């Protein structure tokens, strides 16, 4: 029986930097979107006041990782802090809104909170095949479906609400 080598051992400095940078960029961008949607920020000045500091922080963090010190622990803390903030924002919003698809947000928040533990555990490959990171990727797939499904439902809901106001 051939043991599979975890993909992470094949990383070189460039792929590691791309991995860390893209992860923090995605989590930072998702946090910005969560704040803009949950607080219904529509005017340009409000959006810039929220987005600019977060974009500056994420950009500075990426520059630090790429040109000063590639620090996995620091990157994990930054990603976790922004991810937890995002889950809290969405969870509180789902608890107080009457949105018809809020159950998808709840599912995303609960499932997302649970799969984070796989990323934090980081156990070695079980029988040489599946490690915590690979399992995390696998169980995160349904999260994408629920998130995108909510985005579609939300667009329809907000559009129908606006059309009702026009009539």
TrEMBL record:
Involved in the lipid remodeling steps of GPI-anchor maturation. This is Post-GPI attachment to proteins factor 3. It comes from the Eukaryota. Keywords: Golgi apparatus, GPI-anchor biosynthesis, Membrane, Transmembrane, Transmembrane helix. The keyword Transmembrane applies. Its main location: Golgi. Belongs to the PGAP3 family.
């Amino acid at each position: 029986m051939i043991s599979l080598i975890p993909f992470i051992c094949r990383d070189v400095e460039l792929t590691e930097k791309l991995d860390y940078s893209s992860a923090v960029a995605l989590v930072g961008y998702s946090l910005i979107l969560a704040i803009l949607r949950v607080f219904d920020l529509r005017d340009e000045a409000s959006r810039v006041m929220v987005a600019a500091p977060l974009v500056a922080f994420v950009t500075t963090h990426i520059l630090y990782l790429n040109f000063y010190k590639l620090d996995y622990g620091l990157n994990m803390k930054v990603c976790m802090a922004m991810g937890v903030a995002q889950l809290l924002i969405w969870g509180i919003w789902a608890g107080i809104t009457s949105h018809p698809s809020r159950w998808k947000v709840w599912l995303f928040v609960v499932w997302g909170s649970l799969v984070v533990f796989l990323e934090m555990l980081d156990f070695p490959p079980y029988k040489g095949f599946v490690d915590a990171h690979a399992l995390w990727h696998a169980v995160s797939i349904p999260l994408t479906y629920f998130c995108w499904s909510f985005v579609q439902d939300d667009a329809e809901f907000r559009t129908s609400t606006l059309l009702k106001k026009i009539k």
